[in-house]
Amino acid sequence: MKRVVVTGGNAGMGRECVRLFLEQGDRVVFTSRSTEKAQKVLQAHAGAEESGQLRFFRCDSSSAADVAQLEAFTRETLGGCDVLVNCAAIFIGGQVHEISEADYDLLMNIDVKGVFLTCRAFLPGMLAQKNGCIINISSLAGLRGNYNAAIYCAAKAAVNNLTRAMAMDYGKSGVRANCVCPSATGTEMFFGGSSQQVVDAFNNQNPMGRIGQPGEIAKLIRFLASDDAQYINGQCISIDGGLSAWAGEPRQDKSEERR
């Protein structure tokens, strides 16, 4: 039984992580900036909440004060943290010349600073117990460039290299750090503002003919948190139906005729 913290556990991949960790008997603290959305998760797992297996803490990961209180709450209720899953993130699209400084600051504060703050808060406890696992949810956009997503790509690339650096620094102390890098996934964040034409394009572009599902991403996260993955460290693992294997060239339906 592990003690797990999931930021952004109210929706999408985070919500699925909460479900899977609870199913295997782990104790979970999840965060959300929205108490209303968090209540839906608590209602879905009412038995776990009643038994103390599941707890909610309202937290803005970009706030150092909130994160410090989250760490203290976790230590008080669970006795510490074995697995930290950073799911909290936002998406802001646009090309560089279109993006305001305010939007840049907002996205970087949540998607990068938030990861830094939570890792900084929970690492001392993991180092003291000589065991811990950090899993940061990045994106294929952190490994490759994407259209109309300049600062999002930059933010996720920062998360990837932050994770690699932590793996180097803390591996000998028993603390692993890895990234999960999904392509487009069927979450509220993806569907929000996306037209059916855009959704269809993402489905058609993927070698498997569809985008991923939050539960599929959560299963990889659960594996990386397990003892079976104890030698996996410092990796940014794509989970994208094969999309990152594509060279980007158009399909060639050539005949067998040769010259």
* Strand segment count: 7
Radius of gyration over all CA atoms, rounded: 19 Å
Helix-strand pattern, N to C? EHEHHEHEHEHEHHHE
Helix content: 40-55%
Given helix and strand content, the structural type is: alpha/beta
State the end-to-end CA separation: 64 Å
How would you sum up the global shape? Answer: globular
Largest sheet: 7 strands, parallel
β-sheet strand percentage: 5-15%
Instruction: Please state how the strands of the largest beta sheet are arranged side by side.
Output: 3-2-1-4-5-6-7
What is the count of helical runs?
9
Secondary structure elements and pairings:
Elements: E1 3-7, H1 12-23, E2 27-32, H2 35-44, H3 46-51, E3 54-58, H4 64-78, E4 83-86, H5 101-129, E5 132-137, H6 150-170, E6 175-182, H7 188-191, H8 196-205, H9 214-225, E7 236-239
Pick out its properties.
alpha/beta, 9 helices, 7-stranded parallel sheet, 259 residues, 7 strands
Task: Please describe what this structure looks like.
The protein is α/β, with parallel strands linked by helices. It has helices at residues 12-23, 35-44, 46-51, 64-78, 101-129, 150-170, 188-191, 196-205, 214-225; strands spanning 3-7, 27-32, 54-58, 83-86, 132-137, 175-182, 236-239. It has a 7-stranded parallel β-sheet, with helices on both faces. β5 (132-137), α6 (150-170) and β6 form a beta-alpha-beta unit. α4 (64-78) packs parallel to α5 (101-129) and α5 packs parallel to α6.
